[in-house]
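call fold target=Acetyltransferase (GNAT) domain-containing protein
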Amino acid sequence: MADYLPLSQRCTFNTERLLIKSVESQISDEESKQLCTLKVLELLTPAVTSSLPREWQNITTYEEASNWLQQRIKESSFLSIKLESNNEIIGFVFLYDDKTKQLQLDLHIGYLLGEAYWANGFGSELVKGLVTWACLDKHIHSLVGGVEVDNIGSIKVMEKNGFSRSKLEGSNNNVIFFEHVIKKSKY
């Protein structure tokens, strides 16, 4: 039964150009782990990580990238964003569930895209696909994401996909939280 699978296994979906799937499910041997680690090194550039947590910045060695990868797998439902056309990883999605709720989850979401993939509509397509997936998963109550106040592109992505400003406040005044409450069909 799909409903009882862990979140990272349930959250697999496609959009028009993207494939979203658990990173952990793609690491089956040392070679696949190495390829994923090298992709982390390639994608986590200073521009990509500038607004992310300090421990996500300045990843410059294979060992640091490997540790970063293992930590993300451990702390979240960690998903890759791949281009459907060539199966290339272009970014990552991070889902953090509110484990205090038993039946309906409030998922905190985050994502990053490599610089080469900015301004191509991939963020919007990804978030739209995530909302569509969440509407089909009967255990998801809401999606919540934080955006830096000066990241106009990400703010537009959230608003375009039905998110509204949340009353949540973080420790950082430079972040605005957006929430999308999932309306479930009665049928």
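return ok
The two ends are 19 Å apart (CA to CA). The mean pLDDT is 87.
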